[in-house]
Amino acid sequence: MVITVKDGAATDTNTPELLKRADADIKLPAAPHKPGSDLQTIIADVNQQTPAVGQRVVRVDARAHGLGRTEYIDDMTWPNQLFAKVKRAEVAHARITSVDVSEAAKMPGVKATLVGTEIPVNSFGPSYQDQPLINADKVRHVGDPVAAVAAETEQQCIDALKKIKVEYEPLTPIFDAIEAMKDDAPQVHEGKSNIYASKQIKKGDVEKAFAECDHIFEDSFNTQMIEHVPLEPHASAATWDVNGRLLVWSSLGRITLGRADLSRILQIPYNKIRVTATIVGGNFGGKNELTVEPILALLAKKTDRPVRHVFTREDEFLSSTTRHPFFMDYKTGVMNDGTIVARKIKIVCDGGSYCSWSETTMGKGCILAAGPYNIDNLEVNAYAVYTNKVMTGAMRGFGAPQVCFAYESHMDDIAHALGIDPLEIRMKNAFYEGSSSPTGQQLQSVAVRESLQMASERAGWKEA
Amino acid sequence: MEIKVTVNGAEKAASVPPETTLLSVLREQWGMTGSKSGCEVGDCGACTVLLDGKPVNACLVLAGQANGRDVLSIEGLGTPNNLDPLQKIFETHASLQCGFCGPGVIMSAKALLNKNPDPTRHDVRDALAGNLCRCTGYVKMIDAVMELAANNKSEAA
Q: Scanning A248, A384, A432, B130, which has the fewest C-beta atoms within 10 Å of its C-beta?
């Protein structure tokens, strides 16, 4: 914009015509709507539904997938590449007294080894940086990394891992999340409480409502740990260019976060790191944080060669994140007609050995724990707890499926006990357009009633 | 050991240690990375190829066992401009999501249709039972195979 002074007053003379018009006056052309044409330009009309909805589209990656030509990391090679493997703990909880890689280093084909003390900042994590890349002091679950090797072939790596001697001083492991909350429970992270995150939601007066309601129902629900099992195991590769820039290829879903972590761990500037996201063969939340990328970077630095690593299926189960087991206690106050007046919930999320995305998962589980129902008096208390198991993190829904299993099972039990149809009790309590969520969010586009109605009609609920 | 295998119509030779699997010789020696390695224990089916026309998990077949035999892998089915009808219908049906299981699924479906051009839905489910898809896109895969079989039948009639 150019301002010129004319007759003593500043006048804008050069503003482009379009910018002078209010946005509301701008009429975009109606989108061409020609179903069946191969190429279609989709331009959204103002306040109009885009014509993309309801149309068939062909995925841009479909042809490569079907031809087997999609390049996942395991399908890529780097000139002069080395393979890496990670030695994993076979005990759940122990202090590491020594790690000896000297014999492994002499094995055929081995070009480098790496232990935890060689990592500049040996910790990472999306919420809390509580997870070492390679454990140097203690191990907290079976599968925790204790050393790594790089060799000419994968088999040479496997042979070398067997020569690594790790000595442990065993510690009492804790596997039960409820037990882990006790004051005298073994500490998974020394000097720190096993309860590492908590959240509370309070609305109305639950105790008063419990005293005044017609019925009180109480029950407990547990869910199990689940591994994502992406068909493509975690894979990554790293090398350094001649200008000292780190190049990483990874099946990681959050490369920006990964890049920041790499910068912090390796103590190199952010602009010296390039992370390439490759096509991912299934993530489901399990590929949302680093695994071995910094280890590969350091092995690549030591050897001046590209280093690649692909998890075995066993590695996936031993040392990638999983879905949290939830322990959930529900207490619900109900009137004779099925109206829910109060609900109190306690959730314990078994976080495994490291935080990963536990804080986020617990938070979302907490917000959604009461279900899509209008409950005036509500109290939810949630805790994330360390145990000596593989870490739990993000997985499809971030805690939503666990609490859904609990509140809907609980709802069925209440309906059955009161002799009310399970659909009817849900319709009686379900959110309306504009209802408030437990944390006070005014909800829009609320379709739970219509959805339930349509689902019950299509499933033939009334006839059954 | 020395092996000679007919892969997608072409003679291939390799010298490999005896423990080498057909999957690793395909992927690492002959550069055919279309067959995927998902578990290496025969659970996931991502490495399915046809050995003398029969679907096998290439991770469970030793390279030596394939010596002198005929292998059809995903690379032998079609090209970008000349897709196999299965590849085409998987594309239009959006039957593949992350795609990692895709080549194996298509090879299993190929083996089925070669043997049984008019399968029931149950036959298709049975033929794909050894192929895991963690995106859980099974319905669209089964739909695609059923539609292809129906199209073939109406063309033949």
A: A432
